[in-house]
Design brief:
Strand content: under 5%
Number of strands: 0
Shape: elongated
Order of helices and strands: HHH
Radius of gyration: 16 Å
Structural class: mainly alpha
Helix content: over 70%
Number of helices: 3
Mean pLDDT: 90
């Protein structure tokens, strides 16, 4: 259950971050992410990149079989 929830959360971060990043390049913004540009456009760009990267990291960590990794590294 937790694995599916974290995977979904990671994909949502990735999708909304990537979509927001692409739309901001053509001058359109998602209304619930306009607060990212309040401190400045560079901050908004970096924050969107971090959201995309964070989504990828969450999905990768959620889908890692830690027990198998631990067993492989012990042998």
């Amino acid at each position: 259950m937790k694995k599916a929830l974290y995977t979904l959360l990671g994909f949502l971060f990735f999708i909304f971050g990537f979509l927001s990043l692409m739309l901001s390049m053509i001058g359109v913004q998602l209304t619930f992410m306009t607060w990212l540009d309040a401190p400045g456009r560079l901050f908004g760009f970096v924050a969107r990149l971090l959201i995309v990267i964070g989504g990828i990291v969450i999905v990768a960590l959620a889908n890692t079989d830690w027990e198998r990794e631990r067993a492989e590294s012990a042998s």
